[in-house]
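Appendix B. Chain record.
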Amino acid sequence: MTQTEIEELFTREGQAHLFNHVSKLGATEKDELYKNLSKLAGRITPIKLQEAYQKSLEHLQNDGNVSCDIKTLPETSYQSIIGNPTLAEEYFDVGLNSIQNGEVAVILMAGGQGTRLGSSSPKGCYDINLPSHKSLFQIQAEKIWRLQELSKCKKVIPWYIMTSEPTRVATEAFFIQNSYFGLQKSQIRFFNQGTLPALDSTGSKMFLSSPTNIVQSPDGNGGLYHAIKENNLLEDFKKRGIKHIYMYCVDNVLSKVADPVFIGFSIKHNFLLSTKAVRKRDAHESVGLIASKNGKPCVIEYSEISKELAEERDSEGLLKLRAGNIVNHYYSISLLEKQLNHWCENSTYHIAKKKIPYYDNLSGEYVKPEEPNGIKLEQFIFDVFPEIPLDRFGCLEVERSEEFSPLKNGLGSANDNPNTARQSYLELGTSWLIKAGATVAKDVQVEVSNKISYQGENLSQFVGQTFNEDDTLLEL
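Structure tokens predicted for this chain:
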């Protein structure tokens, strides 16, 4: 598109204000502005963005007008391995067999920065102050390494890492600097999540972030589906012979990457899409819940259910609605092949009111608002859940202390911070050693490298050994 065509398109679609300062720009800056606008128009035009906003409003209104029948998932979809090691072992064997055959790939959602943690680096680079000072990326890479050793797999486990524009370069550099943490460079592929322009509070006008660009933000974790399509990952999956995808988030230090139990559960029951859940800490924990709404699988916000429903218990005395969402999913490749285009073409967006800093091209000043002045549109990864038939949707309840300790808040917060993540990781490794027959001195915690053990196996060599305060790191 020529500069004239670009300006005509954006002006026709309500964005004439973006050009108020063009006459003051030098040739290089002017070229940069039109280049950025042309690139944006290739992904989404202003009118398409406004249509997405209107659709979001309608969706929100319709949701408010529809009565909801919220229930727990049926037994055909929901199962727990808590206190059931025999069942877990059965699923583990099924999943490990699939890994051995090279049928499993891993997708890591790692687009966020460690801003809340006081870091400008990608969150995966963060050090939670373990004795080894390993980053989240290294901890997770070593789980993949150990699983490959454990399974004696015929092919390596492909690791697809979704970054964002602000974190892509730093993430790749970190992996290069650390020699890919012992994995093969060829088994790792980085790809970017998408972005969408922010809009003013009326949903009609875009903001400039500088004289040459507009304000954009990540399109939410539901942007994974667009990212898979735009980066042709389905073709890559098929080329590698992948049949099953394990997806997780970088901030969960306890995530069992490529978990054979979860994969085996999904394969055994022929599920198209599955998710893991942990039990709510209490009836009113602020966490999304995996349930059914009007007969369809979904994730509901805690604010969507009444106090009575939140506190209702089953015959065993457990909360009926207890399946806390940890954003850890299984996808069959057959599902992605069938539904990916449909999901991308029929995206549901959600409106988030935000304080959006912007460049005022009339005054030439940068504005940092103190109150929300605009909106960002984002997608949720679980928006597609209701499209999965209940008998092809699974939810596996796992032990929180073994699988979920997210790093979301900075030091000094009540929970989900670097200290709680570190504590959870050390407690788990220490419990493995004690269960294996080692003795750990009082008030001592041991970091067990995941290159030695994936989930507590391979520790019989430490039977009878005592770990004191000088023995807090067990490395390969």
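Further analysis of this model is presented in Appendix C.
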